[in-house]
Amino acid sequence: MKPQSFLSPRAWLLVACALLLICVLAPVLNLWVPEGQVLHLSDYGVALLGKFMCYAICALAMDLIWGFAGILSLGHGLFFALGGYVMGMHLMRQIGREGQYQSTLPDFMVFLDWKTLPWHWQLSDSFLATLVLVLAVPGGLAFVFGYFAFRSRIKGVYFSIITQALTYAAMLLFFRNETGLGGNNGFTDFKRILGQPIHTAQTRMVLFVLSGLALVGCYLLARWLTRSKFGRVLQAVRDAESRLMFCGYSPLPYKLCIWTVSAMMCGLAGALYVPQVGIINPSEMSVANSIEIAVWAAVGGRGSLLGPIAGAFAVNGAKSWLTVSAPEFWLYFLGALFIAVTLFLPQGLAGLVSRFSSLRKAGQA
């Protein structure tokens, strides 16, 4: 059998166009096109698109574990927040003595009468260590949790419930002041990153481009994983796990690997998200946020990779518009959207596009 190519020429063209849009067009429209002109991309637009791209990475991560392995997680908000907290700790250390209390300790620690940094802050001053921990912390937690859950053969709705419980328990823990993680207020008032002021247009554009590159990189990684033998085994786990075990495969390492990779992708998204929005607090790991990630994947289309990315942009675009024009209806809209997609579009937007494409080809034949 002829092996499947990694990307078709048309797909490579789309990737090249995405890179061109992210690395060239957006910076030109924001930094060089004067304000007031039609083509000018505002700082608000840059921040909004950068945030959406971080969400799209989470939707892609959810697609790997739900769309291809058939494991619905309602705890991915936790991994997103952990990556954000690791980056937030580093950014808090970069404030130095410019805080309200002019201390080397973060302001909230001075307020709570802390005298020294807690042990879990010791590596926070190093950007290199932060980059490692952004992946290692959510990945390590996912590995340990996943090992015991998958080894106990917990799956289906039971797995979804315990991931939700894990997220809720972590949120309650992070709300406590004695954890040394900012309590209810979390981290904010960031000043700089790598010595550069964090609120300038140039820094925001760099973060935007990095978010876009991370999204393209995660998509290519996900594409490579799902089109390999590893991906075919994952789909077998989703469709007929018992038959797979009968054929001599142990599903544990495959499920554990994709679960950990998915968590690390969310951690990366959280680390890119925090410097762009300027705050991280325990509400980011709320149960509702984790459910929203599942909604993005469902609306876009599970098992299609590009669908969840489109779903993240579509749902969050609608959220940004509705929370301004009719904030009281946003949650009703989100619930109705999820129900409608589940009942009438089980393959999401990707399935709808595929159906129209098939009808058009049939009409041309």
How would you briefly describe this protein structure?
The chain has 365 residues and is mainly α. The chain has helices at 9-32, 43-68, 76-93, 107-111, 127-151, 157-174, 201-226, 229-246, 251-277, 287-300, 306-325, 330-344, 348-364; strands at 187-188, 192-193, 196-197, 279-280. The protein has a domain at 42-286.
Description:
The structure is a single chain. With 365 residues, this protein is mainly α. The protein has a domain at 42-286. It is 69% helix and 2% strand. It is built from 13 helices and 4 strands. It has helices at 9-32, 43-68, 76-93, 107-111, 127-151, 157-174, 201-226, 229-246, 251-277, 287-300, 306-325, 330-344, 348-364; strands spanning 187-188, 192-193, 196-197, 279-280. The strands form 2 sheets. A two-stranded antiparallel ribbon has the order 1-4. Strand 2 (192-193) and strand 3 (196-197) form a beta hairpin. The longest helix is centred in the C-terminal third of the chain and has 27 residues, at 251-277.
What are the SSEs and their pairings?
Elements: H1 9-32, H2 43-68, H3 76-93, H4 107-111, H5 127-151, H6 157-174, E1 187-188, E2 192-193, E3 196-197, H7 201-226, H8 229-246, H9 251-277, E4 279-280, H10 287-300, H11 306-325, H12 330-344, H13 348-364
Antiparallel strand pairs: 1-4, 2-3
